[in-house]
Design a protein that fits this description.
alpha+beta, three-stranded antiparallel beta sheet, 20 helices, 48% helix, 9% strand, SPEF2_C, SPEF2 C-terminal domain-containing protein
């Protein structure tokens, strides 16, 4: 396109070219007209004409504008063509990607269908293999429908030849069977899955069961109870609190023994092997557990009891809350014993509930603490005596080394002022070996404390040994006292520059004679051994004090947050009640008040557990719920029935 446009441009430009004068201008068109090249092209030839003067003056501008316009139009056309090409390519890519996605979706659907059919065939093969290996005939109709496989139980191909044996529980006039308890549990689970039901609602439901129950969800003799006895029964089982833990009604009628503290701890340890964080285990793990009541139960009844307990305390359908179950079994002959079991289960260790034992332990702890403080003061006083003695020995050594003979040279001495300036270092004293072998006493004027075993000792060693095993640098000319880096300490003040002693290697019954400190010959060297004060391994604290008592471990102290946490887990609805007594206190305020009465300042403001468990006001208040008391519902009903006769 550009080439054709340029040809026209060149031809047009030739019209404005210079022409020859005279006849040549006249002969030129004739020559062109007379030319036979191109056949009939003569007629289409542009005739030469003479442009006017204005055109001649603007000749260059005209053709420059022409060439610019030509190039601009060419660029515009080229751009449009490229845009069309780009749009075409994009459209083709969209079509291709759409087709690819469609084919990919089709492929995935085909693959899913294929895998579903393969899985159905595999399930059918597994079912047939299991039936063949077990020697069991399959009664249900096996159906392949689409990509699904199932056994249709509505169509039985043949009847069973041998019926399975069904375990029948021994019935009693006063005791619930496991099947009856299961029916009762279903009713209460639908109404209150949390385990707490209003007292009035629970009373009405139990009255309906004992009056007009067509399914016989209660034992036979329970139908003989009048309405008044039902109210008394509920009050005796659960107290006067407005909320009833209906799960404990099932436990009271389950006729299994309530565990002791040791049995609770054993169960807790066994459950912790499966879970240590959440308090939940799987159903299989729970069935594997051996509980405290399994000894005298039949296997069939035991399995039914475990299934019922799993239904009562399951979470999210598949998990079993063993913590909640064990807390509900924490009951005793009185409220203090039951609450003590709950604390034992929560802490994982027995708690002291006996007042006499707890008071003896408190007295022993106070005596131990007093002994510890007295021993600490004595050791501190002994340490300062040792430091003072060592300081005197060092000063005496320095004085003697100056005045003994001419061969004694003090190379370097760090006095008290120097040590104040350099608190990060211990004094380093270098003394050249002495030629005089006299055994004059260096420490004759000093009195040695009883706590020092050894201060200085002498021995013959290799004069070329640079450093011994204790970090004391020794050479043939001098003895340098260089303590270990971890023994460097800062002095207390400018007047006290003694190093702090930390290690325990002193014997109070042994002392070093004064004559053992001697000046050695040039073939001998001095060795300074480490000194320290014995450390006490007594650790006393007011928190979680656990000691051996009658060969058993107990916990004696508790803080208010731990007490509230246990109560909130055992009786959660009790904390939701705003006012619980005549003083219009809530449970938090009441527990805090009891705690303030029982806490001991000498033990970090913590309470002894036996003080809490023997507080009459606290026990009377908790007795309202009867939560921690052992009850036998069948025995109570039997007493009511016999009394009515």
């Amino acid at each position: 396109m550009e080439r054709v446009a340029m040809e026209v441009y060149e031809k047009t430009k030739g019209l404005f070219g210079p022409h020859a004068a005279g006849g040549k201008e006249k002969d030129k068109p004739k020559k062109l007209n007379g030319s036979k090249k191109g056949g009939g092209g003569e007629k289409n030839m542009l005739k030469l004409f003479e442009p006017d003067e204005k055109v001649k003056r603007n000749f260059g501008k005209i053709f420059d504008e022409w060439i610019c316009a030509l190039r601009g139009e060419t660029a515009r056309v080229t751009l449009r063509l490229k845009l069309l090409r780009t749009d075409f390519v994009r459209s083709v890519d969209e079509v291709v990607s759409t087709l690819q996605k469609a084919f990919r979706d089709i492929y995935e659907d085909i693959y899913k269908r294929y895998r579903a059919e393969v899985d159905s065939v595999n399930r059918a093969c597994e079912l047939l293999c299991s039936a063949i290996e077990a020697g069991v005939r399959i009664q249900e109709e096996l159906v392949f429908k689409g990509d699904d496989f199932y056994a249709d139980s509505k169509y039985i191909l043949y009847t069973s030849e041998v019926e399975e044996e069904i375990y029948e529980e021994a019935s009693d006039d006063y005791i619930f069977t496991i099947k009856q308890l299961d029916e009762v549990s279903k009713i209460f689970l639908d109404l209150a899955p949390s385990g707490w039901l209003p007292l009035r609602s629970f009373t009405f439901i139990l009255q309906d069961m004992t009056v007009s129950d067509q399914q016989k969800s209660v034992p036979k003799m329970w139908f003989n109870l009048p309405v008044e006895d039902i109210d008394k029964l509920i009050k005796e089982l659960f107290g006067t609190f407005e909320m009833v833990p209906w799960k404990e009604f099932v436990l009271y009628n389950l006729m299994v023994a309530f565990p002791t503290e040791d049995e609770l701890l054993n169960c807790r340890r066994a459950f912790l092997e499966f879970d240590e964080v959440t308090g939940l285990v799987t159903k299989d793990n729970f069935k594997e557990m051996k509980l405290w009541f399994e000894g005298g139960e039949k296997i069939e009844r035991l399995l039914m009891i475990k299934d019922l307990l799993f239904k009562l305390y399951r979470v999210d359908g598949t998990w079993f809350n063993y913590t909640a179950m064990l807390l509900d079994f924490c009951k005793g002959k009185n409220t203090a014993e039951g609450l003590g079991k709950a604390l034992t289960l929560s802490f994982g260790i027995k708690v002291c509930s006996e007042k006499e034992m707890g008071d003896d332990q408190a007295t022993n702890m106070i005596l131990d603490r007093a002994f510890y403080e007295e021993e600490l003061a004595r050791r501190e006083e002994e340490r300062f005596d040792n430091i003072e003695y060592i300081d005197g020995v060092v000063k005496e050594l320095i004085d003697q080394s100056v005045h003994l003979c001419e061969s004694t040279i003090i190379e370097e001495v760090f006095d008290e002022e120097t040590q104040v300036a350099e608190q990060e270092r211990q004094p380093s004293i270098k003394i050249v070996t002495l030629e005089d072998e006299s055994n004059s006493s260096v420490t004759g004027k000093l009195k040695m404390p009883d706590g020092i075993k050894k201060i200085l000792s002498s021995r013959i060693s290799d004069p070329y040994k640079a450093r011994d095993e204790k970090g004391v640098q020794i050479n043939v000319y001098s003895v340098s006292i260089l303590p270990e880096p971890d023994e460097y300490v800062e002095p207390k003040s400018s007047d006290e520059t003694e190093p702090k002693l930390t290690k325990s290697n002193l014997n109070e019954d042994e002392t070093q004679p004064v004559d053992d400190v001697r000046r050695m010959s040039s073939e001998q060297e001095l060795e300074v051994q480490e000194m320290s004060v014995p450390e006490l391994e007594v650790e006393l604290s007011g928190v979680d004090v656990v000691k051996e008592c009658n060969e058993r471990r107990y916990r004696y102290l508790i803080n208010v947050e731990e007490l509230k946490d246990v109560l909130k887990r055992v009786i959660p609805d009790y904390f939701k009640v705003r006012k619980i007594n005549q003083e219009e206190q809530n449970i938090d305020e009441f527990v805090q008040e009891i705690y303030e009465q029982c806490k001991r300042p000498d033990f970090n403001d913590e309470c002894f557990i036996h003080d809490i468990l023997n507080n009459k006001t606290f026990l009377e208040h908790l007795s309202i719920t009867c939560k921690f008391l052992i009850r036998s519902a069948p025995k109570i009903v039997q007493d009511y029935v016999e009394r009515n006769k």
